């Protein structure tokens, strides 16, 4: 089975109200307790990245739920617009976004993978997002600026 490595649109980054864990031995994936995402721009994608975090629109979350694709957790996050965003886009509104935390794990070696947990949404140790073909088909409409790389099973 093929999986797909995603590189979603980056529209900004962690804002000043992001809360980080400060514990010894905490992996980077687990280092954000609360996400404040500050937009500097936005090309319109419904899946956004700011390593090691991802956010999705409420609309995309509802589509995944309707299709019974629930291999991620949703957390509230704070979304704001930077001065740069305001200058570029004026009063352009943003949809509701939530933090999306994949439940699955996978290891990537080059353009292949092993140790796949079987989830539709997975993270690698380096916080890369890996998804199934079923998810990619949805993202073709909702994440047009997301780079997608096919990876194959390491047999």
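Sequence proposed for the structure above (155 residues):
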């Amino acid at each position: 089975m093929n999986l797909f490595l995603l590189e979603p649109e980056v529209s900004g980054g962690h804002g000043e109200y992001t809360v980080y864990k400060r514990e010894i031995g905490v992996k980077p994936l687990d280092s954000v307790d609360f996400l404040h995402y500050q937009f500097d721009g936005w090309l319109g994608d419904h899946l956004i990245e700011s390593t090691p975090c991802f956010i999705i629109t409420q609309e995309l979350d509802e589509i995944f739920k309707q299709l019974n694709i629930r291999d991620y957790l949703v957390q509230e996050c704070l979304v704001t617009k930077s001065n740069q965003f305001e200058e570029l886009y004026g009063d352009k509104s943003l949809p509701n976004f939530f933090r999306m935390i994949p439940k699955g794990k996978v290891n990537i070696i080059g353009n292949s993978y092993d140790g796949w947990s079987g989830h539709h949404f997975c993270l690698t140790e380096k916080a890369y997002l890996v998804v199934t073909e079923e998810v990619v088909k949805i993202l073709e409409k909702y994440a047009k600026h997301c780079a997608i790389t096919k990876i194959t099973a390491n047999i």
